[in-house]
Write a sequence for this structure.
């Protein structure tokens, strides 16, 4: 177990593992996502209320889902950073924070696009959209703090503390935003809570969610590899790797 | 002088209690602050001025102010606390007092708690005391003003406690002020929502006991968790110095 | 200062062997210390012992990591690898006991400009031991600050402000002193007095680690020389 943990802390070891893992993640994810999207966008039945515009959930829901899980994953990595001081955990946090922010933005954007035909306006202070907006702020904070501290180790630990503080706050924020929402407007139509979704709708949705997770895994590996190369640029193995790649 | 010959490497056995050490930190901060009284006034002036902007910028109509008043006051108080946070550790960091604080034998989170308490007494508490005057100026009724002050009384310590984490994390960084706001504002949202929500409920004549209790729960949570995060952040920032 | 108390059974220091141990038992031991900062290796494989009754001087050109090493020894900087042992045990397990027995004065001496020397000294001692105001006054007088006790420190000169911090040394019980650039801004007389104090302290069994650009000529001084920092 400890051997494994120690290995996991080694960027070089991770680099190799990632190399082997990435094709599977990429092609598996692409296949699932492709299947899910084609099915969802072209073949799934129309919604009796919203017509075709509901189909944006096949993009909106996976990205919203993933945007939130990425923060949770970052929190787990933050614990690893603080407790075991594992470099790789910080590499993960720094690599995926921008991805999480982009996914959150995508969820907000698709939410807005969906809002136009549904509510007749681009933006509505709906509980979910507002929560996502605050999540985006949290991501921005993490990215900004990471960029502001030049020392690698300090930056790793400071960001880890911030991510943990954020993750403690997320449920509180979600809860209070929902409460605020009911206070100001009676709950009308919820974006994703459909009373019952036929299988023709949720199966492709599930496929796209899984697909996006795998694609995210691939992209995270790619970004982590890049980050590792930059951080370890002075080590021998990276120099050898780069030279081998050049020849 | 035989007793002194080996005095140098005798382990120190005297342990100063945490409460006494906290009191010393608290009193020192108060004393230093009262030597520079203008700095104490600034957040209050800021508070008043921000509130003034709303009637001027939006509408001086009584109906609007009555409806928006509690929100305006809360947002202004929040910004005012945010503005004052930069001072929380910065002076101590610059003059080296912070290093000595970290090297005290008492648990750092308790000493941080003492510092935050001093910060609240110097910024949060005056805001609460000033709120009724501004409440009258935005035409809040008596009951709402009372509830508003109560929510500020419970809420501003939470703002100080959470803000301390951000202040500790951004210590010693360039453009720390803006970064601090960026990190902390999202974390302030629940306090703001419940603070203004409680006053709104009071305005509607609804019972507010539950909401106030909930804000109390926020305070308890912040008191128990935030000092740990601030202490950890302080160590990290100092390590980088 | 009443050092012959029953230290053994005081409860706070469980290892009785300490006070009865040989003088040569190291207080602090560094084993293969390594520190890297902003992509630059400041030092590595640095091993040394801080013995009671010794004065250790950390030397090296600007930027060689003297201050960083002192901050690591004091427990302020965490960005290092290797082992630091306090009485033979990893220091990280006994943080409270370590800080209680160590006195650190850094570049920034911990003096609040708005407070008077008396208030500053009182605040600095408050978390460490109970000292009467008389004793504090004596300490301040001992560093040549008699008559300045109630003047806000911002009105004092840089040298006088440092003297406020150094007044702690006159009433300190801590066996280990870590002093970064102690002689900065101190005048000639002050330097001489401080040198005497350090020598006397070491003779009494205290351990002292200093960095200084001042030409310190003391017998039996341990030197730790840091390089200019090599890129690896």
């Amino acid at each position: 177990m400890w051997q494994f943990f120690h290995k996991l802390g080694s960027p070089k070891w991770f680099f190799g593992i990632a190399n082997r893992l990435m094709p599977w993640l990429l092609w598996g994810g692409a296949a699932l996502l492709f299947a899910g999207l084609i099915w969802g966008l072209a073949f799934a039945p129309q919604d009796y209320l919203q017509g075709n515009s509901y189909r944006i959930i096949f993009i909106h829901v996976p990205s919203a889902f993933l945007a939130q899980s990425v923060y949770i994953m970052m929190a787990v990595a933050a614990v690893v950073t603080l407790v075991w001081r594992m470099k790789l955990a910080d590499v993960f946090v720094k690599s995926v924070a921008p991805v999480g922010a982009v996914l959150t933005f995508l969820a907000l954007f698709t939410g807005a696009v969906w809002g136009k035909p549904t509510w007749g306006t681009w933006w509505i202070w709906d509980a979910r959209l507002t929560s996502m907006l605050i999540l985006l702020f949290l991501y921005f904070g993490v990215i900004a703090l990471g960029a502001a501290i030049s020392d690698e180790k300090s930056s790793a630990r400071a960001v880890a503390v911030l991510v943990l503080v954020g993750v403690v706050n997320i449920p509180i924020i979600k809860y209070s935003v929902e409460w605020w929402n009911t206070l100001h407007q009676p709950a009308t139509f919820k974006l994703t809570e459909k009373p019952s979704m036929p299988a023709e709708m949720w199966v492709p949705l599930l496929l796209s969610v899984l697909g996006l997770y795998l694609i995210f895994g691939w992209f995270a590996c790619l970004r982590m590899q890049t980050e590792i190369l930059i951080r370890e640029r002075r080590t021998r193995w990276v120099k050898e790797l780069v030279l081998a790649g050049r020849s | 002088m035989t007793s002194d010959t080996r005095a140098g490497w005798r382990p120190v056995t005297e342990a100063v209690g945490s409460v006494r050490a906290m009191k010393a930190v608290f009193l020192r901060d108060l004393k230093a602050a009262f030597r520079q009284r203008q700095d104490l006034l600034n957040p209050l002036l800021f508070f008043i001025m921000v509130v003034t902007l709303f009637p001027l910028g939006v509408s001086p109509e009584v109906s609007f102010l009555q409806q928006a008043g509690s929100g305006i006051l809360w947002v202004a108080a929040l910004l005012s606390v945010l503005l004052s946070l930069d001072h929380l550790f910065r002076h101590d960091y610059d003059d080296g007092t912070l290093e000595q604080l970290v090297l005290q034998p008492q648990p750092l989170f308790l000493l941080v708690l003492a510092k935050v308490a001093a910060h609240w007494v110097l910024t949060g508490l005056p805001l609460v005391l000033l709120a009724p005057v501004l409440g009258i100026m935005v035409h809040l009724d008596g009951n709402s003003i009372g509830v508003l002050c109560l929510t500020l009384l419970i809420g501003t310590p939470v703002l100080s406690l959470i803000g301390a984490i951000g202040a500790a994390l951004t210590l010693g960084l360039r453009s720390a002020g803006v970064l601090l706001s960026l990190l902390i504002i999202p974390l302030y949202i629940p306090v703001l929502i419940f603070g203004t929500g409680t006053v709104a409920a009071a305005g509607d004549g609804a019972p507010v006991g539950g909401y106030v209790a909930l804000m109390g729960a926020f305070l308890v949570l912040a008191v128990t968790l935030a000092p740990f995060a601030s202490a950890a952040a302080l160590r990290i920032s100092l390590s980088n110095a | 200062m009443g050092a012959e108390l029953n230290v053994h059974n005081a409860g706070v220091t469980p290892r009785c062997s300490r006070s009865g141990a040989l003088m040569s038992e190291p207080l602090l031991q560094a084993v293969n210390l390594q520190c890297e900062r902003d992509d630059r290796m400041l030092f590595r494989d640095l091993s040394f012992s801080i013995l009671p009754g010794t004065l250790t001087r950390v030397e090296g050109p600007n930027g060689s990591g003297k201050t960083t090493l002192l901050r690591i020894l004091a427990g302020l900087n965490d960005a290092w690898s290797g082992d630091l042992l306090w009485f033979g045990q990893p220091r990280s397990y006994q943080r409270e006991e370590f800080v209680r027995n160590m006195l650190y004065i850094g570049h920034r001496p911990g003096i609040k400009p708005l407070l008077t020397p008396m208030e500053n000294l009182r605040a600095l001692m408050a978390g460490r031991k109970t000292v009467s105001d008389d004793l504090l006054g004596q300490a301040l007088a001992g560093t040549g600050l008699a008559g300045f006790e109630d003047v806000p420190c911002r009105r004092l000169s840089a040298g006088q402000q440092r003297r406020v911090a150094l007044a702690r040394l006159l009433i300190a019980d801590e066996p280990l002193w870590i002093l970064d650039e102690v002689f900065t801004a101190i005048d000639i007389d002050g330097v001489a007095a401080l040198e005497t104090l350090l020598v006397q302290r070491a003779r009494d069994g205290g351990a002292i680690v200093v960095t200084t650009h001042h030409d310190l000529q003391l017998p039996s001084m341990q030197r730790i020389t840091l390089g200019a920092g090599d890129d690896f």
User: Anything to note?
Assistant: Chain B touches chain A through 28 residues (CB under 8 Å). Residues 151 and 195 of chain B are 5 Å apart (CA to CA).
